[in-house]
Amino acid sequence: MTPISLLIDPIAFNLGPITVHWYGIILGLGALAGLLLAIREGKRFGLSSDFFMDILLLGVPSAIIAARAYFVLFKWDYYRENPGEIFAIWNGGIAIYGALIGAVISAMIYCRAKGYSFWRIADICAPSLLIGQIIGRWGNFVNQEAYGGPVTKRFLTGELHLPDWIVNQMYVEKDGLFHHPTFLYESLWNVLGIALIFVLRRRPWVRSGEVFFTYLIWYSIGRFFIEGLRTDSLAFNGPSWLASLMDALWSPMTAVFQAGFLDPNYGDVRSSQLIAVLTVLACVILIAVRRRAGWSSERYSDPILNRKTGLPAGAESDTATAAAAKRKENQDDPQNQNPTV
Protein backbone atom coordinates (compact mmCIF):
# COMPACT_ATOMS: atom_id res chain seq x y z
CA MET A 1 0.00 0.00 0.00
CA THR A 2 1.36 3.42 -0.95
CA PRO A 3 2.26 5.53 2.09
CA ILE A 4 0.01 8.51 2.77
CA SER A 5 2.92 10.89 3.40
CA LEU A 6 4.43 12.62 0.40
CA LEU A 7 7.98 11.92 -0.67
CA ILE A 8 10.65 14.52 0.03
CA ASP A 9 10.97 17.02 -2.81
CA PRO A 10 14.57 16.88 -4.11
CA ILE A 11 14.37 20.62 -4.86
CA ALA A 12 14.99 22.68 -1.71
CA PHE A 13 14.01 26.07 -3.15
CA ASN A 14 14.32 28.33 -6.19
CA LEU A 15 16.18 31.61 -6.44
CA GLY A 16 14.70 33.09 -9.58
CA PRO A 17 15.96 30.94 -12.46
CA ILE A 18 18.33 29.04 -10.14
CA THR A 19 17.10 25.73 -8.71
CA VAL A 20 18.79 24.64 -5.49
CA HIS A 21 18.69 20.89 -4.85
CA TRP A 22 18.89 19.21 -1.47
CA TYR A 23 21.58 16.97 -2.96
CA GLY A 24 23.96 19.89 -3.39
CA ILE A 25 23.13 21.38 0.02
CA ILE A 26 23.79 18.07 1.75
CA LEU A 27 27.10 17.54 -0.05
CA GLY A 28 28.09 21.08 0.91
CA LEU A 29 27.26 20.45 4.56
CA GLY A 30 29.35 17.27 4.46
CA ALA A 31 32.32 19.19 3.04
CA LEU A 32 31.95 21.91 5.67
CA ALA A 33 31.79 19.41 8.54
CA GLY A 34 34.88 17.67 7.19
CA LEU A 35 36.73 20.99 6.96
CA LEU A 36 35.94 21.87 10.58
CA LEU A 37 37.18 18.49 11.81
CA ALA A 38 40.45 18.84 9.88
CA ILE A 39 41.05 22.39 11.09
CA ARG A 40 40.51 21.36 14.71
CA GLU A 41 42.98 18.47 14.54
CA GLY A 42 45.42 20.41 12.37
CA LYS A 43 45.81 23.07 15.06
CA ARG A 44 47.49 20.46 17.28
CA PHE A 45 50.28 20.27 14.72
CA GLY A 46 50.54 23.98 13.93
CA LEU A 47 48.74 23.81 10.60
CA SER A 48 46.66 26.85 9.72
CA SER A 49 42.99 26.83 8.82
CA ASP A 50 43.93 28.38 5.46
CA PHE A 51 45.93 25.26 4.63
CA PHE A 52 42.85 23.06 4.93
CA MET A 53 40.65 25.63 3.21
CA ASP A 54 42.97 25.45 0.21
CA ILE A 55 42.83 21.64 0.25
CA LEU A 56 39.03 21.83 0.29
CA LEU A 57 38.87 24.38 -2.52
CA LEU A 58 41.09 22.15 -4.67
CA GLY A 59 39.75 18.82 -3.46
CA VAL A 60 35.99 19.34 -3.81
CA PRO A 61 35.93 20.17 -7.54
CA SER A 62 38.57 17.50 -8.22
CA ALA A 63 36.51 14.94 -6.30
CA ILE A 64 33.25 15.87 -8.05
CA ILE A 65 34.83 15.75 -11.52
CA ALA A 66 36.53 12.40 -10.86
CA ALA A 67 33.43 10.95 -9.18
CA ARG A 68 31.23 11.89 -12.10
CA ALA A 69 33.78 10.69 -14.66
CA TYR A 70 34.01 7.34 -12.85
CA PHE A 71 30.22 6.95 -12.85
CA VAL A 72 29.82 8.01 -16.49
CA LEU A 73 32.61 5.65 -17.57
CA PHE A 74 30.83 2.63 -16.11
CA LYS A 75 27.51 3.73 -17.64
CA TRP A 76 28.91 4.90 -20.93
CA ASP A 77 26.35 2.97 -23.01
CA TYR A 78 23.64 5.17 -21.49
CA TYR A 79 25.47 8.49 -21.53
CA ARG A 80 26.69 7.97 -25.08
CA GLU A 81 23.04 8.11 -26.10
CA ASN A 82 22.23 10.92 -23.63
CA PRO A 83 25.28 13.23 -23.62
CA GLY A 84 23.25 16.13 -22.27
CA GLU A 85 22.93 14.31 -18.91
CA ILE A 86 26.65 13.80 -18.38
CA PHE A 87 26.95 16.97 -16.29
CA ALA A 88 23.59 16.67 -14.48
CA ILE A 89 25.11 15.72 -11.13
CA TRP A 90 22.20 17.31 -9.24
CA ASN A 91 20.21 14.23 -10.24
CA GLY A 92 22.76 12.04 -8.46
CA GLY A 93 25.16 9.64 -10.07
CA ILE A 94 28.59 10.19 -8.56
CA ALA A 95 30.85 7.39 -7.37
CA ILE A 96 32.61 7.71 -4.02
CA TYR A 97 35.64 5.74 -5.16
CA GLY A 98 36.01 8.16 -8.04
CA ALA A 99 35.71 11.07 -5.59
CA LEU A 100 38.47 9.58 -3.45
CA ILE A 101 40.75 9.25 -6.46
CA GLY A 102 40.21 12.88 -7.42
CA ALA A 103 40.62 14.19 -3.86
CA VAL A 104 43.77 12.14 -3.21
CA ILE A 105 45.47 13.27 -6.42
CA SER A 106 44.76 16.95 -5.77
CA ALA A 107 45.88 16.63 -2.12
CA MET A 108 49.12 14.92 -3.15
CA ILE A 109 49.95 17.73 -5.54
CA TYR A 110 49.09 20.44 -3.02
CA CYS A 111 50.99 18.83 -0.11
CA ARG A 112 54.07 18.37 -2.28
CA ALA A 113 53.92 22.01 -3.37
CA LYS A 114 53.69 23.13 0.26
CA GLY A 115 56.48 20.81 1.42
CA TYR A 116 54.41 18.53 3.66
CA SER A 117 54.14 14.74 3.71
CA PHE A 118 50.91 13.65 2.06
CA TRP A 119 50.56 10.76 4.52
CA ARG A 120 50.64 13.07 7.55
CA ILE A 121 47.96 15.31 6.08
CA ALA A 122 45.88 12.33 4.90
CA ASP A 123 45.88 10.97 8.46
CA ILE A 124 44.46 14.23 9.77
CA CYS A 125 41.83 14.33 7.01
CA ALA A 126 40.65 10.72 7.38
CA PRO A 127 37.80 11.55 9.80
CA SER A 128 36.85 14.43 7.52
CA LEU A 129 36.36 12.03 4.64
CA LEU A 130 34.17 9.82 6.80
CA ILE A 131 31.99 12.66 8.10
CA GLY A 132 31.58 13.88 4.53
CA GLN A 133 30.39 10.43 3.49
CA ILE A 134 28.10 10.11 6.51
CA ILE A 135 26.31 13.33 5.64
CA GLY A 136 26.62 13.00 1.87
CA ARG A 137 24.79 9.67 1.76
CA TRP A 138 21.63 11.48 2.85
CA GLY A 139 21.69 13.16 -0.54
CA ASN A 140 21.05 9.71 -2.00
CA PHE A 141 18.17 9.34 0.44
CA VAL A 142 16.51 12.55 -0.77
CA ASN A 143 17.06 11.60 -4.43
CA GLN A 144 15.71 8.07 -3.86
CA GLU A 145 18.80 6.40 -5.27
CA ALA A 146 21.49 3.96 -4.16
CA TYR A 147 18.91 1.89 -2.29
CA GLY A 148 18.93 -1.86 -1.82
CA GLY A 149 16.68 -4.71 -2.80
CA PRO A 150 12.99 -4.93 -1.84
CA VAL A 151 11.90 -5.43 1.76
CA THR A 152 8.59 -5.26 3.58
CA LYS A 153 7.39 -2.18 5.39
CA ARG A 154 7.22 -4.32 8.52
CA PHE A 155 10.95 -4.98 8.26
CA LEU A 156 11.67 -1.24 8.15
CA THR A 157 9.34 -0.33 11.00
CA GLY A 158 9.41 -3.47 13.13
CA GLU A 159 12.98 -4.76 12.70
CA LEU A 160 14.87 -1.54 12.04
CA HIS A 161 12.48 0.73 13.97
CA LEU A 162 12.85 3.52 11.44
CA PRO A 163 10.67 6.65 11.62
CA ASP A 164 7.95 7.13 9.03
CA TRP A 165 9.79 9.91 7.17
CA ILE A 166 12.57 7.44 6.32
CA VAL A 167 10.27 4.50 5.70
CA ASN A 168 8.09 6.46 3.29
CA GLN A 169 11.12 7.63 1.30
CA MET A 170 12.13 3.99 0.90
CA TYR A 171 8.93 3.33 -1.05
CA VAL A 172 9.80 3.47 -4.75
CA GLU A 173 6.77 4.20 -6.86
CA LYS A 174 8.12 2.76 -10.10
CA ASP A 175 8.06 -0.77 -8.71
CA GLY A 176 5.61 -0.28 -5.81
CA LEU A 177 8.00 -1.75 -3.23
CA PHE A 178 9.90 -0.71 -0.13
CA HIS A 179 13.70 -1.05 -0.30
CA HIS A 180 16.73 -1.46 1.95
CA PRO A 181 17.96 1.96 3.20
CA THR A 182 21.54 1.22 2.20
CA PHE A 183 22.40 4.91 2.54
CA LEU A 184 21.60 4.56 6.25
CA TYR A 185 23.60 1.36 6.65
CA GLU A 186 26.66 3.05 5.17
CA SER A 187 26.20 6.19 7.27
CA LEU A 188 26.03 4.19 10.49
CA TRP A 189 29.00 2.05 9.49
CA ASN A 190 31.03 5.23 8.94
CA VAL A 191 29.97 6.62 12.32
CA LEU A 192 31.61 3.56 13.88
CA GLY A 193 34.63 4.20 11.65
CA ILE A 194 35.07 7.73 12.98
CA ALA A 195 34.90 6.46 16.55
CA LEU A 196 37.57 3.86 15.71
CA ILE A 197 39.86 6.47 14.16
CA PHE A 198 39.45 8.89 17.08
CA VAL A 199 40.71 6.13 19.39
CA LEU A 200 43.38 4.82 17.02
CA ARG A 201 45.10 8.11 16.33
CA ARG A 202 45.86 8.60 20.03
CA ARG A 203 47.77 5.31 20.24
CA PRO A 204 51.56 5.93 20.45
CA TRP A 205 52.41 3.06 18.09
CA VAL A 206 50.45 4.38 15.09
CA ARG A 207 52.75 5.38 12.22
CA SER A 208 52.23 7.99 9.53
CA GLY A 209 49.72 6.96 6.88
CA GLU A 210 48.18 4.21 8.97
CA VAL A 211 45.16 6.24 10.10
CA PHE A 212 44.39 6.94 6.44
CA PHE A 213 44.89 3.28 5.54
CA THR A 214 42.57 2.30 8.41
CA TYR A 215 39.92 4.61 7.00
CA LEU A 216 40.24 2.99 3.56
CA ILE A 217 40.09 -0.52 5.03
CA TRP A 218 37.10 0.23 7.25
CA TYR A 219 35.14 2.00 4.56
CA SER A 220 35.90 -0.67 1.94
CA ILE A 221 34.80 -3.54 4.18
CA GLY A 222 31.48 -1.86 4.84
CA ARG A 223 31.05 -0.85 1.22
CA PHE A 224 31.72 -4.40 0.00
CA PHE A 225 28.89 -5.93 2.02
CA ILE A 226 26.45 -3.04 1.65
CA GLU A 227 27.02 -2.88 -2.11
CA GLY A 228 25.78 -6.46 -2.41
CA LEU A 229 22.35 -5.31 -1.24
CA ARG A 230 21.97 -2.67 -3.93
CA THR A 231 20.10 -3.00 -7.20
CA ASP A 232 21.82 -0.15 -9.08
CA SER A 233 25.47 -1.16 -8.75
CA LEU A 234 27.97 -0.21 -11.41
CA ALA A 235 29.07 -3.55 -12.85
CA PHE A 236 30.95 -5.25 -15.67
CA ASN A 237 31.20 -8.69 -17.20
CA GLY A 238 34.19 -10.39 -15.61
CA PRO A 239 35.56 -13.92 -15.69
CA SER A 240 33.39 -16.52 -14.00
CA TRP A 241 35.98 -17.22 -11.31
CA LEU A 242 35.97 -13.55 -10.27
CA ALA A 243 32.18 -13.41 -10.05
CA SER A 244 32.19 -16.62 -8.00
CA LEU A 245 34.86 -15.20 -5.68
CA MET A 246 32.86 -12.03 -5.04
CA ASP A 247 29.75 -14.10 -4.34
CA ALA A 248 31.67 -16.37 -1.96
CA LEU A 249 33.09 -13.43 -0.02
CA TRP A 250 29.62 -11.91 0.31
CA SER A 251 27.94 -15.23 1.22
CA PRO A 252 28.02 -14.68 5.04
CA MET A 253 25.42 -11.93 4.49
CA THR A 254 22.95 -14.46 3.06
CA ALA A 255 22.24 -15.65 6.60
CA VAL A 256 20.47 -12.33 7.19
CA PHE A 257 19.83 -10.61 3.86
CA GLN A 258 19.14 -11.45 0.26
CA ALA A 259 21.50 -9.98 -2.32
CA GLY A 260 20.18 -7.17 -4.48
CA PHE A 261 19.32 -8.04 -8.06
CA LEU A 262 22.10 -7.53 -10.59
CA ASP A 263 21.02 -7.77 -14.22
CA PRO A 264 23.31 -10.37 -15.85
CA ASN A 265 23.00 -8.51 -19.14
CA TYR A 266 24.57 -5.48 -17.47
CA GLY A 267 27.38 -7.31 -15.68
CA ASP A 268 28.19 -10.03 -13.18
CA VAL A 269 30.84 -8.29 -11.06
CA ARG A 270 29.99 -5.19 -9.03
CA SER A 271 32.85 -2.75 -9.60
CA SER A 272 32.65 -1.26 -6.10
CA GLN A 273 32.95 -4.69 -4.53
CA LEU A 274 36.04 -5.52 -6.56
CA ILE A 275 37.63 -2.17 -5.78
CA ALA A 276 36.80 -2.63 -2.10
CA VAL A 277 38.58 -6.01 -1.98
CA LEU A 278 41.61 -4.65 -3.85
CA THR A 279 41.73 -1.60 -1.58
CA VAL A 280 41.75 -3.69 1.60
CA LEU A 281 44.50 -5.95 0.24
CA ALA A 282 46.58 -3.00 -0.97
CA CYS A 283 46.30 -1.16 2.36
CA VAL A 284 47.26 -4.20 4.44
CA ILE A 285 50.26 -4.83 2.19
CA LEU A 286 51.32 -1.17 2.28
CA ILE A 287 51.15 -1.04 6.08
CA ALA A 288 53.35 -4.14 6.35
CA VAL A 289 55.83 -3.09 3.65
CA ARG A 290 56.17 0.50 4.90
CA ARG A 291 56.88 -0.70 8.43
CA ARG A 292 59.35 -3.36 7.32
CA ALA A 293 61.19 -0.99 4.96
CA GLY A 294 61.26 1.86 7.47
CA TRP A 295 59.22 4.17 5.25
CA SER A 296 56.84 4.99 8.10
CA SER A 297 59.30 5.90 10.84
CA GLU A 298 57.24 8.97 11.78
CA ARG A 299 54.42 8.44 14.24
CA TYR A 300 51.07 10.12 14.07
CA SER A 301 51.86 12.10 17.23
CA ASP A 302 55.21 13.41 15.94
CA PRO A 303 55.50 17.07 14.86
CA ILE A 304 54.79 17.63 11.18
CA LEU A 305 57.90 19.00 9.46
CA ASN A 306 58.00 21.11 6.33
CA ARG A 307 60.45 19.32 4.06
CA LYS A 308 61.37 22.53 2.28
CA THR A 309 62.32 24.51 5.38
CA GLY A 310 63.03 21.72 7.86
CA LEU A 311 60.85 23.56 10.38
CA PRO A 312 57.80 22.20 12.19
CA ALA A 313 54.43 23.21 10.78
CA GLY A 314 53.52 26.66 12.01
CA ALA A 315 57.11 27.63 12.78
CA GLU A 316 57.41 29.35 9.39
CA SER A 317 54.60 31.75 10.26
CA ASP A 318 56.07 32.33 13.74
CA THR A 319 59.45 33.14 12.20
CA ALA A 320 57.87 35.48 9.67
CA THR A 321 55.87 37.22 12.42
CA ALA A 322 58.98 37.68 14.57
CA ALA A 323 60.92 39.06 11.60
CA ALA A 324 58.13 41.49 10.77
CA ALA A 325 57.99 42.65 14.40
CA LYS A 326 61.76 43.16 14.41
CA ARG A 327 61.60 45.20 11.22
CA LYS A 328 58.86 47.37 12.70
CA GLU A 329 60.92 47.86 15.83
CA ASN A 330 63.89 48.99 13.76
CA GLN A 331 61.74 51.38 11.77
CA ASP A 332 60.30 52.88 14.97
CA ASP A 333 63.78 53.26 16.52
CA PRO A 334 66.10 55.14 14.16
CA GLN A 335 68.94 54.76 16.68
CA ASN A 336 68.88 50.98 16.30
CA GLN A 337 72.26 50.00 14.87
CA ASN A 338 71.36 46.40 14.12
CA PRO A 339 68.54 46.50 11.59
CA THR A 340 67.12 43.26 10.38
CA VAL A 341 68.50 42.31 6.98
Automatic annotation (TrEMBL):
Molecular function, one GO term: phosphatidylglycerol-prolipoprotein diacylglyceryl transferase activity
InterPro entries named among the record's database cross-references: Lgt
UniProt-annotated location(s): Cell membrane
Lipid bilayer topology: Multi-pass membrane protein
Keyword Transferase found: yes
Key word Zinc-finger present: no
Associated pathway: Protein modification; lipoprotein biosynthesis (diacylglyceryl transfer)
Function text: Catalyzes the transfer of the diacylglyceryl group from phosphatidylglycerol to the sulfhydryl group of the N-terminal cysteine of a prolipoprotein, the first step in the formation of mature lipoproteins.
Sequence similarity: Belongs to the Lgt family.
Name the record gives this protein: Phosphatidylglycerol--prolipoprotein diacylglyceryl transferase
Naturally occurring in which organism (per UniProt): Paenibacillus albicereus
